[in-house]
DNA sequence: AATAATTTAGAACAAATGTACTAAAATAAA
DNA sequence: TTTATTTTAGTACATTTGTTCTAAATTATT
């Protein structure tokens, strides 16, 4: 593995453990047993490291999204996709923990993230429409209901990790499972009766 | 107003505008046209300022909570109380924006906040029980349903401000209104039919 | 093998920041 | 009015951090 790759790897490790504020380029270099001059040769500063890690995450997310495009989506798919996304978020935990700060400090990430969100919202609208069409979700009970639902889902996605870190116990995997359950609880009132039944059977199998 | 009070006031202003990381004791002193030596005479460092402001917020919250203790709570009360709390959170916006960081950096706040949350959870459980008893909420549909609901409400409360800041437009007041709506949407599936009707009438009056 | 390019270590410097200290000024108490 | 206390301004110092630079070492190329 190249020095450049090792730098990112070590940065991710330290950022996740101690947060971006406490960790400096010198700490990272020290941990790797290289000089910080060397580190700055590859990445001029901490900001560059954060951006590089952010781009890693975004790339991995995009691969998954394009994978789903145009396909029919079931409840099982949704569940798998939720687990994939939240697991990835856990891998880049520090980004989620410091999200608002990073957004404020690094304009590139702020603008890029806002762009991504616009796109993500459209994708969700498409998925919702498809699920309504396939009788998995009920038609919109009032205008804007699914937009409001999406806000809740979106919030849960972005802030679950810092919340769980503070308030919940157990392993990361248990927290991921709880996250998936919570998202489904958000969707539950919008499930058709058939879906509710299906979902109920699914859950009673899983829980034992 | 004493210097000590003016310091807190100015700190709050600058923290809210630029975030706790960017603002230093020197900036605050400069803005107030006093020496930073003077500022450090009253509050030795930035951490002390953050703690003092945190305590201001907690005190104001506690006053409201004790106000409600032992009383019967209606939907209207809930709405009023939600608006009060979220408005207070908006006043101390910087605390909510940097929450996870502040929790990590300042042990006093971390431990104190965790204590508060235990208490807050119990209060909510009592309120839920009362609302079930008064036929406003349905009985728990499955074991842990209201605990899970409370997690969603809690998350929404703690992270609405950073979320709205990034993704929503409009004035703070509009965002506060949206917050209240979102919380009620979380509760809606647990309303009794009577409450749903009442809630519906309430909303159709408000919206015009 | 000789040369060029890349990578690395380490030093050096500037700026920012927290903290402590001193002496003057203002205020309160006697 | 005198004395004590509190408040204020300003300075000074250590530490941290980002950033740049140089020269040595390593690797790749010819």
Helical content of chain A stands at over 70%
Q: Termini distance of chain A?
A: 43 Å
Structural class of chain A: mainly alpha
The main pleated sheet of chain A reads as: none
Unreliable parts of chain A:
none
Rg over CA atoms of chain A? 20 Å
Q: Quick check: average pLDDT of chain A? A: 91
Q: Using CB atoms under 8 Å apart, which protein chain pair has the greatest interface?
A: A-B, 34 and 34 residues
List the helices and strands and how they pair.
Two copies of one chain form a homodimer.
Chain A: H1 3-18, H2 25-32, H3 36-42, H4 46-68, H5 75-91, H6 93-97, H7 99-105, H8 107-133, H9 145-167, H10 172-187, H11 193-206
Helix pairs in contact in A: 1-2, 1-4, 2-3, 4-5, 5-10, 7-8, 9-10
The first copy, chain A, binds a DNA duplex (30 and 30 nucleotides) through residues 3, 24-26, 34-38, 40-42, 44-46.
């Amino acid at each position: 593995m190249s020095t450049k790759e090792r730098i990112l790897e070590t940065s991710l490790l330290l950022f996740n453990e101690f947060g971006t504020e406490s960790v400096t380029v010198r700490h990272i270099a020290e941990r790797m047993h290289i000089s910080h001059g060397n580190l700055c040769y590859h990445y001029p500063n901490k900001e560059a490291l954060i951006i590089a890690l952010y781009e890693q995450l975004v790339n991995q997310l995009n691969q998954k999204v394009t994978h789903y495009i145009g396909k029919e989506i079931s409840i099982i798919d949704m569940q798998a996709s939720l687990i994939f996304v939240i697991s990835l978020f856990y891998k880049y935990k520090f980004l989620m923990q410091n999200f608002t700060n990073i957004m404020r400090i690094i304009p590139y990430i702020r603008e890029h993230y806002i762009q991504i969100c616009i796109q993500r919202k459209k994708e969700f609208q498409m998925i919702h429409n498809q699920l309504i069409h396939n009788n998995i979700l009920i038609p919109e009970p009032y205008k804007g209901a699914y937009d409001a639902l999406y806000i809740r889902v979106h919030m849960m996605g972005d802030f679950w990790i810092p919340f769980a870190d503070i308030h919940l116990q157990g392993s990361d995997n248990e927290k991921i499972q709880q996250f998936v359950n919570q998202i489904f609880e958000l969707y539950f009132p919008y499930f058709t009766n058939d879906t509710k039944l299906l979902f109920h059977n699914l859950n009673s199998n899983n829980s034992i």
